[in-house]
Amino acid sequence: MSTITDGTTTITPLLVLGYEATRQGRNIIHPIIGRPDPDVTLAPAALRTGTLSLLFKDEPTAAGCMTMHAAAAVFTVDRDDLPGASMRYVVAGRIGVTLDPATLLRCVVTVDFQEVAP
């Protein structure tokens, strides 16, 4: 089971349908004229960024999820089934809703996120 909270409100989707995350490398490569190998400045990778896809039982609960994510807040997702996907994040792009094509009753909310430090 997964829960998402903003510190005040907690929502529980029926299922996390998708979790896609990447980390941007921050190394800086300096090509040097006359040398085949570059100089490199090493830096740690950025925190995760990606998209969460959340399944809700109906349109009103999906609308509540969208409203919560539209606020200026830091969110926490806790996943019992996949602890490595638990994180604190902010909305970093689109918040969308679609009708679940399998049931035509349930709704899928997608949220673009940027992980933030705890």
Largest sheet: 7 strands, antiparallel
Q: H/E order of the elements?
A: EEEEEEHEEE
Assigned CATH class: Mainly Beta
Number of helices: 1
CA gyration radius, whole angstroms:
18 Å
Mean pLDDT: 94
Task: List unreliable stretches of 5+ residues.
Answer: none
**Overall body shape:** elongated
Category by helix and strand content: mainly beta
CATH architectural designation: Beta Barrel
- Proportion in helices: 10-25%
How are strands sequenced across the largest beta sheet? Answer: 2-1-7-8-9-6-3
Give the percentage of residues in beta strands: over 45%
Defining traits:
mainly beta, 7-stranded antiparallel β-sheet, 10% helix, single chain, 118 residues, Elongation Factor Tu (Ef-tu), domain 3, 1 helix, two-stranded antiparallel ribbon
Description:
The protein has about 120 residues and is mainly beta. The strands form two sheets. Strands 2-1-7-8-9-6-3 form a seven-stranded antiparallel beta sheet, covered by helices on one side. The mean pLDDT is about 95. It has one domain: Elongation Factor Tu (Ef-tu), domain 3 (Beta Barrel). It has one helix spanning about 60-70, and strands at about 1-5, 10, 15-20, 30, 40, 50-55, 75-80, 85-100, 105-115. The two termini are about 20 Å apart.
